[in-house]
Amino acid sequence: MKLDDVPQDNSRSFEGQKKRLYARDENGEYTTALSSGWEAEDVVLDQAVEEYNRFSREARQRVQQGLSSPLEYHMYAHRMDVTVLAQATGFFRWQVRRHLKPAVFNRLPPRKLQRYEEALQMTAGQLRTLPPEDEPNND
Amino acid sequence: MTDFNHQQTAHCESGAVAALLRHNGLDLSEPMVFGLSSALTYAYIPLVKMGGMPLLAYRMPPGRIIRGLSKRLGIRFHFERFRRPEDGTAALDKYLEQGTPVGLQASVYWLPYFPENMRFHFNAHNLVAYGKDGDDYLISDPTFEQPVRADTAALQRSRFVKGMLAPKGLIYYPENISQAKDLTAAIPVAIRSTANMMLRTPLPFIGVRGIRHVARHMEKLSPANEHYNKLLIGHMVRMQEEIGTGGAGFRFLFASFLQESAGILSDERLVKAADQFTDAGDEWRRFALYAAKMLKGRSELDYDKLATQLRKVADMEQEGYQMLLALKSR
Predict the structure, then answer these.
(1) Does A90 sit within 8 Å of B10, measured CB to CB?
(2) Residues 277 to 306 of B: which have CB under 8 A from any A CB?
(3) Out of A37, A78, B148, B250, which residue is the most buried by the measure of CB atoms under 10 Å away?
């Protein structure tokens, strides 16, 4: 990559930050240059973020229909899946999956609920409810 | 308060190590740190899943740069991990009071200064803490332009997440750099180690064979699973470009290391090798571009075209590593 080829596509996701890339100057010598983003990268980043957003939206619907506990929504809203949430809480995956059921989640003893509070940095009250649709957490 | 010379780098671990060494009087460039620790690789491990995607790496696992560099240069690093978060915070505060900047491992997701869209559950991010101001830690995060801050609760949280690559509050700093080894001896060993790993690892999903393995996998993707296939392709490009690689999955960083080494060893052949890896890097970038266009729907989703591009990269890299192995015979 030549210095002139360092992309400056002003990525929104960078929030004004720039990242350092390695490129060659006109003499072929390596140096670094700041990039404000690359469109190709934006595409794949948006794709990854959107995938979690989609999971959150679908989970919100299931919660509203009484098919899932709010935990499922909060898990995806924190860009986690069952595996990551299990690791973060120390539960087995089958336990987390059980806790996604409303009936089980509603009876969860405070001791277990606390592990979710810790892992997701939320209060018990927040965990038991859905945030309003336009809340920034609903990313 | 401790003065710390913040410099932005491409990659977090090589950047944090370079910054700590520089603070202790040993000035090595980021590419030199990266190259000397033989950190370049290619690995595709479908058995290990991260967020439903196979593990794909363009560099060796986290921790390799610190350990690799200490091995090659005989620099001992001090490592500390903690069972209790409060102990980790107390130890960090103690080092900062003494005026010792230290490297930390932390989760990207819980670091408050990361842009929202960049926050994922990656637990092996590296940064340097060099001071404390009230409740705020002063942080030199190698992937940011300016020094940043994080409050005590947030930093403790991100240093003690559980899960894959859990940091367990890791603190590290170089202990003795008085008798750093000669670079002219260390460079050829490091280069050979990378070339051997990329060409001779007897596993089909590591090194150049790994790239070809993924090319074959691309061709066999079933058009029926388009959603998953697109996620997989996007994942490949993210691992290659987005995760602080300096461009083209660390290939430009590696080429820069070869170029710098050419000067140190006065070996013209390394200049040629640097050119070769720059060209290979450009082809990796082209792969990313093709992939992004297909994902965006601006060109037709064509798995064969992506596979062909990967094979092209594999051929160019293979030639590059062979050039590096041939250096030995002079």
Answers:
(1) no
(2) 278, 281-282, 285, 288-289, 291-293, 295-296
(3) B250
**Residues across chain B:** 330
Residue B329 has what pLDDT?
A: 59
A2, A9, A19: best mutation site toward chain B, by most B Cβ within 10 Å?
A19
Q: Work out the pLDDT band at A139, boundaries 50, 70, 90.
A: very low
Task: Please give the domain boundaries of chain A with CATH numbers for all domains.
Answer: 3-37 (no CATH), 41-128 (1.10.260)
- Contact list, B8 vs chain A (CB under 8 Å): 20, 34
> Which residue from B144, B281, B292 is facing A43, i.e. has the nearest CB?
B292
Chain B interface includes A50 (CB < 8 A): no
CB contact, 8 Å: B10 with chain A? yes
**A3: contact with B, CB 8 A cutoff:** no
Phi, psi of B58 (to 5 degrees): -105, -5
Q: Model-level pTM?
A: 0.93
Chain B (103-162) residues lying within 8 Å, Cβ to Cβ, of chain A: 109-110, 115-121, 143-145, 157, 161-162
The answer, yes or no, to whether residue B178 has pLDDT greater than 70, is no
Domains and CATH numbers, chain B: 12-176 (3.90.70.10), 183-328 (no CATH)
- How much is the mean pLDDT over chain B? 93
| Residue B105 predicted with pLDDT over 70 | yes
Q: What is the ipTM of this complex?
A: 0.92
- CA torsion, ordered A18, A21, A26, A30, to nearest 10 deg: 140
pLDDT of residue A12: 87
